[in-house]
Amino acid sequence: MHGRMKKLAPALLLSTALSLSACSQMGYMGNQLFNPDTTFAAAGQPTIKGINDTQEDMAKEAMQNGDFGRAAQFYQQLIGSEKGTPEQQLRYKLGMAEAARRLGDTEAALRMYQDLHSKQPANMDVSEGLGLTLMASGKISDAGQLFSEVIEKEPKRWRTLNALGILFVTKNMTPEATAYFTEANNQSPDNPAVLNNAGLAFAVDRNFPRAIEALQHASRASKSPLQRKQVELNLALIYGVSGDFDTARDVAGKHLEGPALENNLGLYAHLAKDDALAKSYLNMALTQSPTYYERAWENLDALNNAGRSDSTDATPKAEPKPAARAALPKTDALVAPEPAPAKPKKWKRGSKSRAAATESSPVEVEPAISQPVTPDAAPAPSAAPAPVTDKPAGLIVGPSE
């Protein structure tokens, strides 16, 4: 027995040594293990947004999607909460004013922007928004004055450059307008708002090939179905005015059908100075829908009356050369005293349409904000009524606002 113990002793000693060695290694490893109390405290934590931040994000998303009523509700809630920093409250109020403008409630938007401007006269976002609202209200001189002040301080603001282009179109000064649209495009390339407006300026100057090229580019660059619809209805109008009615039908037919499409084609034919064809299209609208009877015939009368007073030269003009980027046209012509704009004839309204007051009213498409400008701010080379569409299309002030 004693002999066996002597033989086992070295083995026990070896086992003990191994055990001690293992314990030593575990102690070393223990020093390398993560301590959750210190490790997680030092690591970056996920950002959890509060209610206000979440609502503001939802309001911005609604604005980008063209759901201005929903955006206004979110901004109203944010303002009513009276929470947030002064900078946040200013953003909420700016968003609310912009949503009102996009909804076409220019009276409410004007009150909000004027209040903000009285408190933040040096804020260029406020000044720009107020200028756009004044333009939508037909107050061209006041808008031009504000835009001139904004562009003097921040010459790269594409929305203001775009708006100045629109104002020059309303003055029938298309070379100057084209210069501003060109500069706006330099500052915001491939912006569907700017491209659309440049196309319409070319169309006002009856440079139809250049107009079609710009509007096709705007359609490809559009960020939403609504933007694309507005741009393509303008494109259809230009095809029609240039006499290409087959292509006009193809393009407009993506968004209109039946009597509404024939009614619009009747307008295009009139603008192309073919009232016989206009009557044919209006008769087709009558055949397809008896509800169009009175409206279609009154539209034809309005078109014929406008045709007798329209002496615009149909000869295409050469493309104007825009001014150099360093020497944009002066804005003096935009702030001179002017008479109140006369209200153009309206396309006969019906139960299935909302009529515009000009043949192409501005549409907004900005990278972050978007909405149609009132008819007074749109170019109106003739007094012809506007096409029957779900939403009037035309010049875009505007995210592509």
Question: Topology, pairings included?
Answer:
Layout: H1 2-32, H2 36-42, H3 51-64, H4 68-81, H5 86-102, H6 106-119, H7 124-136, H8 140-153, H9 158-170, H10 174-187, H11 192-204, H12 208-221, H13 225-241, H14 245-252, H15 258-271, H16 275-288, H17 293-309, H18 332-335
Helix pairs in contact: 3-4, 4-5, 5-6, 5-7, 6-7, 7-8, 8-9, 9-10, 9-11, 10-11, 11-12, 11-13, 12-13, 13-14, 13-15, 14-15, 15-16, 15-17, 16-17
* Overall pLDDT confidence: 74
Q: What percent strand?
A: under 5%
Helix-strand makeup class: mainly alpha
Taken in chain order, the helices and strands follow as: HHHHHHHHHHHHHHHHHH
Number of strands: 0
Radius of gyration: 32 Å
